[in-house]
Amino acid sequence: MSPTDESSTDGGVQLSDDQLFGQLADSDSVELSGRERLARILDAYVLAPGRVAWNDWRTRLGILIISLFVLAGTIGPRVIEAPATNQAPTNHPPFVGGFGAITEEGGWIDLAQVSLGGVSLPWLSIEFPLGADNYGSPIGRQLVHATPDMLEMVVAGAIVSVGFATLIGVTAGYKGGRTDSVLMSLTDIVMTMPGLPLVIVIAAIYPPRQAWLVGVILAIDAWPGLARALRSQVLTLRQESYVEASRTMGLPSRTILSRDVIPQLMPYVLINAAQAGRKVIFESVALYFLGVLPFTTANWGIMMDTAYSEAFALVDLGNFYQILWPMSAIVIISFGFILFSQGMDRVFNPRIRARHAKTVGGDDEQPPT
Amino acid sequence: MSEYLGRARKGVAAAFGFLAGFDYYWRKIGHAFVTLISVTTITFVLFRLMPGNPAQAMRAQFEAQLEGSGQAADPEILDQMVQVHTGFDPSQPIYMQYFEYVRDIVLYQDFGQSIQYGDPVFDILFRAMPWSVFISVYGLALGYSTNILLGAAMAYKEGSRFDGTMTVVATFLNSIPYYVGALLFLAFFAHDLGWFPSGGRYDTSIEAGLNPAFMASIVHHGALPIMSSFIVGFGGGALAMRGNSVRILGADYLRVARLRGIGSVRIATRYVARNAILPLYTQMMIGIAAVFSSSVVLEYIFTYPGVGWYTFDAINMRDYPLLMGSFLFFTIVTLVGILLAEFTYGIVDPRAGSGGENESY
């Protein structure tokens, strides 16, 4: 793109060349600092799709739900007291007093005074709103205090599975030939292994004691599907002219992959990171519920297990709330993840977008810039 | 005419893939075999090579048992006991142990002996397997049929209120884990309403056999587990099917087909359904592994003694031969399921046999 001093060889008018490229060259020849480069990459691949995605209610709701859980996981444990047994009466029911409790004394919610810098302000005092379990440990506090470990697990699991899938899928798709068939055979083998039993076998012999380690073990099961999907994406990308150009210029595969190919896949990777996070939550809760993993980390599955096997929440429906709250937390966070990934899918997937545009009317949809 | 002949030949080849010698089927069988060997290797490595492995733990356990009963712990006897349960002799070199382990599993179906039951692991699991397959296959089949029908209906009515509502409903159902569904079913349909039994495979008071009452009780006991494993199969498939169908409905060849005056039934079944189902079919191969995996949790919740229930039992009792055996069993069942799917995929998608070789960079 840089202007050259050579005269044009096709006999065209030289002036027009300058007119055409002069401005472009000026703006292009400005040396970009690392920070600016980063800002541009961020804008092109993260912010711009983000803005498009934000127009969809799904993404907004998804992001809202996920941020709520992140808040609960970061600030929550600092604000809310740690749960302990006998803080509340055993099997304390949720929302004691119902709506009437807001106006009346006693019950789950009361008006109280709080003094802030010498000024007394009206405040709401909330007393075990979600009830307490078999041991008198308040469920709301347990839920909040389990969130940091859950988030740690989700993040670790998502990063490992998505990172591994990207490495395998992109290499296989781009390299092709023998590399492709070897890597894809490996993927197929892992894909056809029943994931949960494998994880159970590993966890039974080497019980993971840290939350992030649980996430990493669960990632074993999560990467193959994504690796295959990424490979097929790369198979179409590798035919693109700009990739062809980079190859003709003799750039090493590593550079082509990191500069030309992977950025194109970012939204897709993000979608699948959300899906992987959901999968990690599902499976970890299942394993804690079964009692396969050691109870060294806090998890909603442990709460479900206590409610199921000690409070008999299923037989005695009076205690059903004890298992309902952790289950609701799982359903809500995974709903958030799914909405988020669906909204992102709108940005990325031209199949859905094209048809969508058609029903709105014509091809006048704004490109995502 | 020749097209139909070709298709018929392909169908025969699929059924007798191993005889016809088609590259595609051989490759798939080869894959399955490699997977089986790798899984066996994994169980062996976990079992034998890792520090603090179950074989050592078992040896210590037997030693304690013998000493408890006042006998001297002879290392040779201990080795023998470990060999009976695991199928390899700890005193032999590693590669011989590995060879014998794989040979026993692949050739003689010898998975070792369960510690707590004292029976060969293979017998225990082989008796339990049909029940797991029964639950999983019905769950998967129901889930995928619903996916296809619902997805097609949503695509047909694209943009309508039905489409919008069902999309939200399907998304929400998708975010419910199968075990949450199972717990809800158990609490309300079994314990509260008492419509279904809360556990077991069949009513033990009825004489087992091919009498209608016994079969009805099997269905009755299986209903809730099947409903729960239906959730596994359901997944996001309906939305995927909707997306595929919508894309195909807008394709040019469909327009051409209409212009050619082809009947709408033929268009719906041959043009739209077939093409839209193809991606779901490949997705189902992952689904098979997922649905068998889920049976560990489901069978625990419903106290349904299938392979999954024995897996859970083995973990609790530290019965490692049974645990490893059930993992191998899950792998084999999954592999067979996937092989069946792959072979029939050759019939559904004629392109499958001619896998495109791409240029290597």
TrEMBL record, chain A:
<dbReference type="InterPro" id="IPR000515">
    <property type="entry name" value="MetI-like"/>
</dbReference>
<protein>
    <submittedName>
        <fullName>ABC transporter permease</fullName>
    </submittedName>
</protein>
<dbReference type="InterPro" id="IPR035906">
    <property type="entry name" value="MetI-like_sf"/>
</dbReference>
<dbReference type="GO" id="GO:0005886">
    <property type="term" value="C:plasma membrane"/>
</dbReference>
<comment type="similarity">
    <text>Belongs to the binding-protein-dependent transport system permease family.</text>
</comment>
<feature type="transmembrane region" description="Helical">
    <location>
        <begin position="153"/>
        <end position="174"/>
    </location>
</feature>
<feature type="transmembrane region" description="Helical">
    <location>
        <begin position="212"/>
        <end position="230"/>
    </location>
</feature>
<dbReference type="Pfam" id="PF00528">
    <property type="entry name" value="BPD_transp_1"/>
</dbReference>
<keyword id="KW-1133">Transmembrane helix</keyword>
<feature type="domain" description="ABC transmembrane type-1">
    <location>
        <begin position="151"/>
        <end position="341"/>
    </location>
</feature>
<keyword id="KW-0472">Membrane</keyword>
<keyword id="KW-0813">Transport</keyword>
<keyword id="KW-0812">Transmembrane</keyword>
<feature type="transmembrane region" description="Helical">
    <location>
        <begin position="61"/>
        <end position="80"/>
    </location>
</feature>
<feature type="transmembrane region" description="Helical">
    <location>
        <begin position="323"/>
        <end position="341"/>
    </location>
</feature>
<feature type="transmembrane region" description="Helical">
    <location>
        <begin position="285"/>
        <end position="303"/>
    </location>
</feature>
<feature type="transmembrane region" description="Helical">
    <location>
        <begin position="186"/>
        <end position="206"/>
    </location>
</feature>
Automatic annotation (TrEMBL), chain B:
<dbReference type="Pfam" id="PF19300">
    <property type="entry name" value="BPD_transp_1_N"/>
</dbReference>
<protein>
    <submittedName>
        <fullName>ABC transporter permease</fullName>
    </submittedName>
</protein>
<feature type="transmembrane region" description="Helical">
    <location>
        <begin position="176"/>
        <end position="196"/>
    </location>
</feature>
<keyword id="KW-0813">Transport</keyword>
<feature type="domain" description="ABC transmembrane type-1">
    <location>
        <begin position="129"/>
        <end position="341"/>
    </location>
</feature>
<feature type="transmembrane region" description="Helical">
    <location>
        <begin position="280"/>
        <end position="302"/>
    </location>
</feature>
<feature type="transmembrane region" description="Helical">
    <location>
        <begin position="29"/>
        <end position="49"/>
    </location>
</feature>
<dbReference type="InterPro" id="IPR000515">
    <property type="entry name" value="MetI-like"/>
</dbReference>
<feature type="transmembrane region" description="Helical">
    <location>
        <begin position="133"/>
        <end position="156"/>
    </location>
</feature>
<keyword id="KW-0472">Membrane</keyword>
<dbReference type="Pfam" id="PF00528">
    <property type="entry name" value="BPD_transp_1"/>
</dbReference>
<keyword id="KW-1133">Transmembrane helix</keyword>
<keyword id="KW-0812">Transmembrane</keyword>
<keyword id="KW-1003">Cell membrane</keyword>
<dbReference type="GO" id="GO:0005886">
    <property type="term" value="C:plasma membrane"/>
</dbReference>
<feature type="transmembrane region" description="Helical">
    <location>
        <begin position="322"/>
        <end position="341"/>
    </location>
</feature>
<dbReference type="InterPro" id="IPR045621">
    <property type="entry name" value="BPD_transp_1_N"/>
</dbReference>
<comment type="similarity">
    <text>Belongs to the binding-protein-dependent transport system permease family.</text>
</comment>
<dbReference type="InterPro" id="IPR035906">
    <property type="entry name" value="MetI-like_sf"/>
</dbReference>
